[in-house]
Design goal:
The chain is of the alpha+beta class. Helices cover 16% and strands 33% of the residues.
């Protein structure tokens, strides 16, 4: 986990809009994909990472997408992949940043919490194997060299210091990391 690795990403996200200028669109847009698993439920991913373990109800899609685009803070490609194979795509822009609240002196930046990522990596896994992340919040896959990478929003980590485990489902390779 490195603050330097996360820093450029934050600069791009915060630098997406400048006062008095047109919105700057990044060269590669973040992508939200909603894939239908039944007529009433969809699996949602942001840049390939599931946002919830369980599917979301179709009625929750507008609220979920609106919140995600606002949190990303930049124009975002949104795709809905239906059961019949049709794909609906659009590029959505977040709402303009709210002005500072004169009553509280609070800025939009302090009101809206952007994800702060924590990265945990380990070697020794079978290339492509599923690697469990325990406190199991999701799974990842080992790359072609056998290295696994877990990228988590710090909001998913416990409030107190603890440990996170990467466990290879095939190799049984175990790696333990401190979360403080």
């Amino acid at each position: 986990m490195s603050e330097q690795q996360d820093h450029p990403r934050r600069l791009r996200r915060h630098g997406a809009a400048r006062a008095g200028s047109a919105r700057v669109v990044p060269a590669v847009l973040p992508q939200i994909v909603l894939e239908a698993v039944s007529a009433d439920t969809l699996i949602a991913t942001v840049n390939g990472d599931k946002i919830t373990a369980a599917p979301i109800a179709r009625a929750e899609v507008p609220k979920t997408v609106t919140e995600l685009v606002a949190r990303l803070g930049t124009p975002t490609r949104v795709e809905v992949r239906e059961l019949d194979g049709t794909v609906h795509a659009d590029i959505l822009t977040p709402p303009p940043p709210a002005a500072d609240d004169p009553a509280t002196g609070e800025s939009d930046t302090t009101r809206r919490s952007l994800p702060a990522l924590a990265e945990f990596t380990a070697d020794g896994y079978v290339p492509g194997e599923d690697v469990a992340i325990a406190m199991i919040v999701r799974h990842t896959s080992a790359d072609h060299t056998g290295r696994a990478r877990a990228l988590l929003d710090r909001a998913e980590l416990p409030d107190r210091p603890g440990e996170l485990i990467l466990l290879g489902r095939i190799s049984e390779t175990l790696s333990i990391h401190r979360t403080d």
